[in-house]
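Technical annex, item 7. During the second reporting period the consortium partners agreed on a shared format for inverse folding records so that results from different sites could be compared directly. Each record opens with the tokenized structure and is followed by the designed sequence. A conforming record, contributed by the partner at site C, is shown below for reference.
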């Protein structure tokens, strides 16, 4: 196969295109915990696709729901009109979201959900007579997708550097990762709650009555699986409450059972004002995102006059019938198999298995929570990220798909994973890490 000709037209995201096309890795088929390559190699999926295939691949109920929907209603306009599955899905979703989040706005991705949430927060303050609240606060090492709002509140220098015109009036909290104090800590780190106090300082610097919202990933996934220290998120919530600032949780990764409860908000016992989701919402089968808001926020947008829309926002494909069908099939699968709580059953085994790798060369930290894990490697001198990328390539050769971000190997298997499959991931990692060249 002449890869250059066959593969050249597709400009792939977050990929070194020419390098990849010279050495392509393709996936052709998937079922349950596994992918298959075009050559027929079976690959254990230790990343749930991209943190989204929580129920495992090609689940029958989801596939059938999509097929039936495509044959029944392919598309319906989403403005001043609806279709029954959208309302059915919304009702089913708010039954499992934290108690105060009873309304949902549909999007098509995590990035769209983030920007929708930021717009909702800013518009809410405008509509409730607090139009001075225009500032947004994100965090260093946060990933909130690739749209302009999400990039602005995000904290990844390489994503931002070609775009000087990001949103104005955005500040960043420090991230919570503290390797010196939390190395090899199990579950939630104990030290570092003082980092939340920085929010108070940022608010005072600007006058708290000018701040609209703080956006936080309960676990920063894409930048290395940074688990919040005990009490950190609670303190952020308290400070937001004290100053009338909205708290947005970006649960694109943590939502739908990843941590052993439906949402991270449940695990940490916190009610955000707005919750951003995507990925696990449809088990990755059809693109969809959803932004959940509190009753307080929804009622500020109350619209009884058909000509007085006060939130001029929405996507052609919001609540797309195929996505709604996929999400309903997904929720039913999650519920039938208790998958939203399943990670808590395996969390201890998972923790023990991951931390058994602590003795291997170059491993400088291991982190875990629910069915999320990270192994941080010492960066190679003058060649950061290369060591972890090598692990990714070697693992793929050995039949296990992992993900890397910087020098961190990130793991987030489908929630249907069994103990022998956990063992397979760990045994393969041990083998590959042992053979890493200096
Ligand atoms: N927020 C978070 C926390 C994410 O992890 C991601 C994707 N990894 C996004 C937003 C963006 O989602 P998408 O790629 O669907 O736009």
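Designed sequence (site C submission):
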């Amino acid at each position: 196969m002449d890869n250059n000709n066959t593969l050249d037209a597709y400009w792939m995201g977050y990929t070194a295109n020419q390098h990849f096309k010279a050495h392509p890795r393709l996936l052709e088929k998937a079922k349950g915990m596994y992918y298959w390559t075009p050559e027929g190699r079976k690959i254990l999926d230790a990343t749930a696709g991209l943190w989204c295939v929580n129920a495992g691949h090609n689940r029958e109920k989801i596939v059938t729901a999509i097929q039936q929907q495509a044959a029944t209603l392919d598309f319906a306009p989403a403005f001043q009109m609806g279709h029954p599955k959208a309302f059915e899905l919304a009702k089913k979703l708010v039954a499992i979201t934290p108690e105060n989040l009873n309304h949902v706005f549909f999007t098509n991705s995590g990035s769209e959900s983030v920007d929708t949430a930021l717009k909702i927060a800013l518009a809410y303050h405008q509509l409730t007579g607090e139009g001075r609240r225009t500032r947004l606060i994100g965090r260093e090492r946060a990933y909130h997708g690739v749209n302009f709002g999400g990039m602005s509140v995000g904290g990844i220098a390489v994503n931002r550097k070609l775009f000087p015109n990001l949103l104005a009036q955005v500040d960043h909290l420090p991230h919570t990762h503290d390797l010196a104090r939390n190395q090899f800590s199990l579950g939630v780190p104990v030290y570092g709650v003082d980092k939340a106090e920085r929010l108070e300082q940022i608010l005072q610097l600007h006058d708290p009555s000018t701040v609209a919202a703080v956006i936080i990933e309960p676990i920063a996934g894409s930048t290395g699986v940074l688990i919040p220290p005990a009490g950190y998120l609670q303190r952020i919530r308290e400070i937001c409450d004290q100053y009338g600032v909205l708290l947005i949780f970006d649960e694109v990764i943590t939502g739908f059972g990843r941590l052993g409860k439906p949402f991270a908000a449940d695990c940490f016992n916190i009610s955000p004002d707005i919750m951003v989701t995507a990925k696990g919402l449809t088990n990755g089968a059809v693109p969809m995102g959803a932004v959940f808001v509190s009753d307080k926020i929804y009622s500020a947008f109350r619209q009884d006059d058909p000509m007085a829309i006060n939130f001029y926002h929405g996507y052609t494909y919001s609540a797309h019938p195929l996505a709604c069908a996929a999400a309903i099939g997904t929720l039913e699968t999650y519920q039938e198999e208790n998958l939203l709580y399943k990670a808590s059953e395996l969390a201890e085994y998972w923790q023990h298995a991951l931390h058994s790798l602590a003795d291997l060369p170059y491993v400088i930290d291991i982190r875990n929570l629910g069915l999320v894990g990270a192994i941080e490697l010492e960066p190679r001198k003058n060649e950061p990220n290369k060591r972890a990328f090598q692990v990714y390539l070697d693992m793929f050769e050995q039949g296990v798909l992992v993900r890397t971000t910087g020098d961190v190997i990130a793991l987030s298997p489908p929630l249907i994973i069994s103990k022998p499959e956990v063992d397979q991931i760990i045994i393969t990692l041990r083998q590959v890490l042992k053979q890493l060249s200096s």
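Residues 109-111, 114, 143-145, 217, 221-222, 250, 252-253, 278 surround 4'-deoxy-4'-aminopyridoxal-5'-phosphate (CB under 6 Å). The chain has two domains: 3-55+338-434, 62-336. All partners now use this format for quarterly exchanges.
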